[in-house]
Amino acid sequence: MTDETSEFRTVLLTPQEVLQVWPSIEAGIANALSHGVGEMSAFDLFKAAINGTVFIWVALDRDSRIVHTATLRFLVQGSIKTCQIITLHQDGVSLKQVEADHRLFEDFAKKNGCSHLQVWGRKGWQRRLQTFSSRQGNKYKTQYYVFDMEIF
Q1: Cβ atoms of residues 40 and 32 within 8 Å
Q2: CA dihedral 48, 49, 52, 57 (to 10 degrees)
């Protein structure tokens, strides 16, 4: 699954590709996780990506350099399946590209049976996420700084 804009190409990495690029994305993922409460480490995400329970997406520039990394996983609570955006690390990428990638993540979540997208984050994400909406026009709602959007 990929998304291409004029400047970037966003791709879902296979476990083998995660092994190859991990040294170049680990620091950004670790930095994003440092704003949490220590519930997981970058190595935890690495192991889960290799095992296929975490999905790592990267945006590549025209020279195939990684400029944006996102990690996602599925959460199931009762009959609700959610795609959680665990980390989002952008290295000089515009919010416009992040919004384009968000659409890709929404499609990926739907294809995998999810009815919600979630971002667990700092209060500061509230301002950034307010411009995002699902294809049906739903917005993220703040729930204990767990931002949740219906996407069905």
Answers
A1: no
A2: 140
Q: Is the pLDDT of residue 3 over 60?
A: no
Q: Which of 46, 43, 81, 59 is nearest to 8 (CA)?
A: 59
End-to-end CA distance of the chain: 19
pTM score, two decimals?
0.82
Q: Is the pLDDT of residue 93 over 70?
A: no
Spacing of C-alpha 19 from chain mean position: 18
The Cα-based distances of 30 to 25, 36, 108 in angstroms read 9, 10, 24
Cα-based angle 28, 17, 88 (whole degrees, multiple of 5) = 30
Q: In sequence order, what DSSP letters do the residues of 54-70 get, joined into one string?
A: EEEEEEE-TT--EEEEE
pLDDT tens for each residue of 28-47:
999 988 877 788 999 999 99
DSSP codes, 40-99:
--HHHHHHHHHHTSEEEEEEE-TT--EEEEEEEEEEEETTEEEEEEEEEEESS--HHHHH
56 neighbors 26 (Cβ within 8 angstroms): no
Q: Report pLDDT for 88.
A: 85
Taken as a whole, the chain contains a residue count of 152
